[in-house]
């Protein structure tokens, strides 16, 4: 069964990682539709890894190498509910993508990836509004779990938004 890093503790001057066992990723009820995922990374190997790990008709992976083209794709191919973004986007920054996607009418969930996904990056990403942080190389179970949970969270938010009554502002004299 796959393992997930849940914390670090110092043991004799070295960090020792504690792990816990994970179950299966949640099931997605997306009958007849494919879930689009936008991969933003200057490294071709990241796109290839996502494409290889998310095969089949359930996932559609779109590729881009910078924030400008990512924002263009997000506006043209709406809705893309999931964005997997590399931490090291030179000269851009993943924080810039997070800010720009928050301005979209239906903002996607941004998942930051890094080879060195440490506690600092995890805390910063979550505090700024990212959905999660994934370590590279990608683990199939962790990748599908994170993407599935983000997609299900988005579906639930849309359901709630559709059931709430529309409130209009009264005219101020």
Compute the average pLDDT.
80
Distance between the termini: 64 Å
Shape label: globular
Strand content: 25-35%
Question: Helices, strands, pairings?
Answer:
Elements: E1 3-11, E2 14-21, E3 35-40, H1 44-53, E4 59-64, H2 67-76, E5 82-86, H3 94-102, E6 109-114, H4 119-128, E7 132-135, H5 140-163
Parallel strand pairs: 3-4, 3-5, 5-6, 6-7
Antiparallel strand pairs: 1-2
Explain this structure to me?
This protein is α/β, with parallel strands linked by helices and 173 residues long. Helix content is 36%, strand content 25%. It has five helices and seven strands; from the N terminus they run βββαβαβαβαβα. It has a five-stranded parallel sheet, sandwiched between helices. A two-stranded antiparallel sheet has the order 1-2. It is globular. The model is unreliable at 1-26 (pLDDT under 50).
